[in-house]
């Protein structure tokens, strides 16, 4: 049943919010468990629809999964590399990690192209080039990729772009290849380090994760272990922006402040007051904000996944802000919906030009996860009150654990209703 979120504007968020484990780590760590011969236990696992779908996929492939609150144990010992050309793999982006993990363990995988948030074409040519460099043959059969290798051999791989997905997918397959793989121009996102940490605990030999050169010495066997997932820096950032947008006072707990630096710096530049503790950040909103220019870049730059929520806050700054996305040239599906709410913004090339404006409540539609977050934040920050109806909640559920509960405990009036 499809649902919409009803969001009442004008209430400052106040209190403390706990951040769950990272979605973009979880959806890589779950398939990484395929590479082990014995059980892998993941702690701090977020309750998200992407995680639930991944669990079903691994069960279909023969894994036994025990998921209790935020802990999941995956026993991959009886798994097989069954073809998955359609169905569940089309529901999420990160199903592409099945390719690297199944290739590493079984030497073959037949997997449909990934789904998820298609705010623009999202090619996986670099993943395929990586598998081919490791000695795999890749063919496209009726829209599914058939990937096979008699023997995976280590190789030197230069990524044309520092792709998160390609870096992790190559690490997965190369962990079980013969010899050494070097990934140059690797992505440096914290989730890459999280995946390498798990793989090393499983017996892999990976060095340099988090830098642009990653060295993977293949091993013949990997085993189970226990691993705690890093906090979700995008959820954390969304609540930080929400605190500023509603002129609230929110402590975001269970975060790694270092992961938030690019956002923290931009919020401070706008005039938001921020206090960093060891594992939490307090954000105190102010009556007036200055406009700023924001460039979404690969880590440690400003995260593209926070670009859409940031657009909602920039509506409230004095003057003109320019928000440019250097990772995705066309990730602006939220802009026309924000304009429906009275925002003065337009898209020019890969930038949104945003003028300060008064938002008002409206009926809007989320067509991807972070666009959805942006619309919820806009609804919360409508100063004149009123109810904003955000449809497309299924996208928001991909990435925000307990959103309604969390916002309500911060004093917001938010609830779900079924969409007729
Ligand atoms: C599940 C997951 O972790 N998703 C994240 C991951 O997505 P994802 O792994 O899909 O993003 P990438 O880092 O691969 O994409 C970065 C850029 O490289 C391009 N590209 C990528 C691969 C490829 O083979 N060819 C190619 O041209 C993309 O179109 C994009 O312009 O990183 C993105 C960038 O931080 C985030 O927005 C997503 O939340
Ligand atoms: C784009 C995102 O996720 P995915 O790559 O899983 O679609 C996101 O988390 O903002």
Describe this structure in a few short sentences.
Helix content is 30%, strand content 26%.
Task: Please give the structural blueprint.
Elements: E1 3-8, E2 14-18, H1 23-32, E3 40-43, H2 49-60, E4 64-68, E5 71-75, H3 97-106, E6 108-112, H4 125-133, E7 137-141, E8 144-148, E9 156-158, H5 164-174, E10 180-184, H6 190-201, E11 205-207, E12 213-217, E13 226-228, H7 233-245, E14 249-253, H8 261-270, E15 273-276, E16 280-284, E17 289-290, E18 293-296, H9 307-314, E19 317-318, E20 320-325, H10 334-340, E21 344-348, E22 351-355, E23 363-365, H11 369-380, E24 387-391, H12 393-396, H13 403-409, E25 414-418
Helix pairs in contact: 1-2, 1-3, 1-6, 3-5, 4-5, 5-6, 7-9, 7-11, 9-11, 10-11
The chain binds uridine-diphosphate-N-acetylglucosamine and phosphoenolpyruvate.
Function: Cell wall formation. Adds enolpyruvyl to UDP-N-acetylglucosamine.
Keywords: Cell cycle, Cell division, Cell shape, Cell wall biogenesis/degradation, Cytoplasm, Peptidoglycan synthesis, Pyruvate, Transferase
Domain Enolpyruvate transferase: 9-404
Structural descriptors:
420 residues; alpha/beta; UDP-n-acetylglucosamine1-carboxyvinyl-transferase, Chain; four-stranded mixed beta sheet; 13 helices; globular; binds uridine-diphosphate-N-acetylglucosamine; binds phosphoenolpyruvate
In words, what does this structure look like?
- Its EC number is 2.5.1.7.
- Pfam families: EPSP_synthase.
- The longest helix has 13 residues, at 233-245.
- The protein has 420 residues and is an alpha/beta fold.
- It is 30% helix and 26% strand.
- It is built from 13 helices and 25 strands.
- It has two domains: 3-20 and 231-418, UDP-n-acetylglucosamine1-carboxyvinyl-transferase, Chain; 23-228, UDP-n-acetylglucosamine1-carboxyvinyl-transferase, Chain (Alpha-beta prism), CATH 3.65.10.
- The model has no long low-confidence stretch (mean pLDDT 97).
- It has helices at residues 23-32, 49-60, 97-106, 125-133, 164-174, 190-201, 233-245, 261-270, 307-314, 334-340, 369-380, 393-396, 403-409; strands at 3-8, 14-18, 40-43, 64-68, 71-75, 108-112, 137-141, 144-148, 156-158, 180-184, 205-207, 213-217, 226-228, 249-253, 273-276, 280-284, 289-290, 293-296, 317-318, 320-325, 344-348, 351-355, 363-365, 387-391, 414-418.
- The strands form seven sheets. The protein has a four-stranded mixed sheet with strand order 23-24-1-25. The chain has a four-stranded mixed sheet with strand order 2-14-16-15.
- Helix 1 (23-32) packs parallel to helix 2 (49-60).
- Bound molecules: uridine-diphosphate-N-acetylglucosamine and phosphoenolpyruvate.
- The site of phosphoenolpyruvate (PEP) has 8 residues, from helix 11.
């Amino acid at each position: 049943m499809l649902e919409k979120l009803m969001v009442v504007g004008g209430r400052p968020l106040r209190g403390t919010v706990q951040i769950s484990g990272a979605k973009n780590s979880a959806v890589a760590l779950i398939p990484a468990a395929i590479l082990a011969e014995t059980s892998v236990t993941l702690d701090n696992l977020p309750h998200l629809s992407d995680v639930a779908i991944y669990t079903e996929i691994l069960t279909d492939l023969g894994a036994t999964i025990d998921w209790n609150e935020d802990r999941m144990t995956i026993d991959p010992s009886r798994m097989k590399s069954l073809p998955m050309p359609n169905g569940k793999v089309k529901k999420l982006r990160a199903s592409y990690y099945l390719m690297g993990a199944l290739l590493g363990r079984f030497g073959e995988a037949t997997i449909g192209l990934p789904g998820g948030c298609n705010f623009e074409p999202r090619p996986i040519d670099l993943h395929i080039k990586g598998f081919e460099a490791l000695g795999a043959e890749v063919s496209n059969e009726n829209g599914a990729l058939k990937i096979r290798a008699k023997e995976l051999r280590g190789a030197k791989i230069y990524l044309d772009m520092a792709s998160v997905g390609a870096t992790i997918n190559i690490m997965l397959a190369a962990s079980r290849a013969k010899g050494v793989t070097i990934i140059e121009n690797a992505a440096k996102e914290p989730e890459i380090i999280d995946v390498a940490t798990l793989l090393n605990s499983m017996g892999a030999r990976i060095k340099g994760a988090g830098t642009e050169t990653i060295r993977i010495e293949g091993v013949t066997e990997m085993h189970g272990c226990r691993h705690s997932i890093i906090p979700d820096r995008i959820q954390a950032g969304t609540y930080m922006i929400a605190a500023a947008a509603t002129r609230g006072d929110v402590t975001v707990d269970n975060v790694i402040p270092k992961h938030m630096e690019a956002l923290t710096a931009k919020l401070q530049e706008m005039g938001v007051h921020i206090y960093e503790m060891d594992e939490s950040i307090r954000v105190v909103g102010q009556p007036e904000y200055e406009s700023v220019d924001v460039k979404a870049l690969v880590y440690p730059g400003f995260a593209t996944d926070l670009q859409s929520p940031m657009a909602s806050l920039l509506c409230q700054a004095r003057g003109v802000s320019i928000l440019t996305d250097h990772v995705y040239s066309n990730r602006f599906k939220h802009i026309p919906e924000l304009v429906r709410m009275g925002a003065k913004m337009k898209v020019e090339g890969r930038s949104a030009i945003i003028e300060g404006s008064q938002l008002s409540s409206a009926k809007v539609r989320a067509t991807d996860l972070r666009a959805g977050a942006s619309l919820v934040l806009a609804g919360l920050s409508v100063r004149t009150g009123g109810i904003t109806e955000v449809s497309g909640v299924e996208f928001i559920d991909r990435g925000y654990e307990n959103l309604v509960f969390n916002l309500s405990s911060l004093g917001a009036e938010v609830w779900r209703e079924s969409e007729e």
